[in-house]
Amino acid sequence: MGRKGQRRSLKRLFAPKNWRIERKVKEWTVKPIPGPHSKEVSIPITILLRDYLGHATNRKEVNFILHNGDVLVNGRPIKDSSFPVGIMDVIEIPKTKEYFRVLFDKKGSVNLLKIDESEKNTKLFKLINKTMIKGQKLQLNLHDGTNLLSEQGYSTSSTLVMKVPDMKVVDSLEFKEGYIGLVIKGKNVSRIGKISKITPFGIYKDAVILESGNDKFQTLKDYVLVVGKDSPIIKLE
């Protein structure tokens, strides 16, 4: 493999543990390019098409599929086989009429959940923080690295319900007790429950207790994405 190839590749043994790939079959796999989502919580589109869905057997075939504009991520065609996708992204394959949402399973591995066409243009964004920029404009910084200018203020940690690819906010969900949360990080990843209490715990200022049936579990506020008021507004399992 030449130097250029190595810059675009990653040794399988050192690939993030949340990628469901064979580690010892081949030496190299695809390295994600810088983009939305950090490399620790994203996966290259090639691996999803080849290893997860079986729509290609090698990267050359993936490049052919992408070059023809046959795969959309959040409503936009993706051309680069190293493009990273992450939690809440929607993968659309128009020719096969397949639609998937990127989530994590109970082990923290990247997972693809098949969804209906009616959900393909809906994506949930966790509002990480917000800053005032030049011209007194409010910039919203979202969980996948997206920055959005807004005339309306939203509470930090709330969820913005947006239509993609237009990136239009159609609703918002506050981070409040009684709302439904999805854990997106930590040992309770993928669990869904009602936020029963937001309270400091030890050194953690923003601990959250969630309820699922008769079970209660605790995590950090930063690890929870609000997904609905009484029930999730999108398919999650």
Automatic annotation (TrEMBL):
It holds the Pfam family RS4NT. Keywords: Ribonucleoprotein, Ribosomal protein, RNA-binding, rRNA-binding. CDD domains: KOW_RPS4, S4. Residues 43-107 form the RNA-binding S4 domain. GO terms for biological process: translation. InterPro entries: Rib_uL2_dom2 (IPR014722), Ribosomal_eS4 (IPR000876), Ribosomal_eS4_central_region (IPR013845), Ribosomal_eS4_central_sf (IPR038237), Ribosomal_eS4_KOW (IPR041982), Ribosomal_eS4_N (IPR013843), S4_RNA-bd (IPR002942), S4_RNA-bd_sf (IPR036986). One of its GO terms (cellular component) is cytosolic small ribosomal subunit. GO terms for molecular function: rRNA binding; structural constituent of ribosome. It comes from the Archaea. Belongs to the eukaryotic ribosomal protein eS4 family. This is Small ribosomal subunit protein eS4. It comes from Candidatus Methanofastidiosum methylothiophilum. The lineage of its organism: Archaea, Methanobacteriati, Methanobacteriota, Stenosarchaea group, Candidatus Methanofastidiosia.
